[in-house]
Predict the 3D structure of the following.
Amino acid sequence: GEDVEQSLFLSVREGDSSVINCTYTDSSSTYLYWYKQEPGAGLQLLTYIFSNMDMKQDQRLTVLLNKKDKHLSLRIADTQTGDSAIYFCAEGGGYNKLIFGAGTRLAVHP
Amino acid sequence: GAVVSQHPSRVICKSGTSVKIECRSLDFQATTMFWYRQFPKQSLMLMATSNEGSKATYEQGVEKDKFLINHASLTLSTLTVTSAHPEDSSFYICSAHLEQGNEQFFGPGTRLTVL
């Protein structure tokens, strides 16, 4: 079945780049998404990439997609303390359903 | 961007009672809304797909008689947790699918605590 996997925790120093990785299994996914969740809050869509793209850049965010390896990554440049949150990778399943990874908790320290 | 609201944001109820959670798309119409459940430090698990004007589609393992979903209008879906028990305590999040794109916009979530 469909499955999305992420590493659970990432710690970076303020100002460094963060790279969060994700692997998925459903090669038919049309879109892949990155969401951010702050404590006690809902999900905020950060960015998404169409499956026929290799890369998408949006300000400090860069998404890389390796469709052959079914690997997706999110790079956050110049990471700030306000970027501390849980980041979820999701693939667009059938009927617009989203399949989420377990989330990567990003901790930014001075 | 599109805004989705949920009400209430927090609810505490006694075991055996029913709780209704509302999900509204504030500035767009959504023929499809989704209900997710998130346990502490875990991912979101899709419970059901709510379709306006028709019956909801439930994921495997989700009891449709326990989690009643009504999508009576293009801007409102409700989830009723019937005869709630402590194990139903969770964070319930809805999302609405924007037809013109491929995005889902999420509500802020409802934290349910069943005593």
About this structure: The mean pLDDT of chain B is 91. The interface with chain A takes residues 4, 6, 32, 34, 42-46, 49, 57, 93, 95, 97, 102-109, 111 of chain B (CB under 8 Å). Residues 29 and 58 of chain B are 22 Å apart (CA to CA). The first strand of chain B starts at residue 4 and ends at 7.
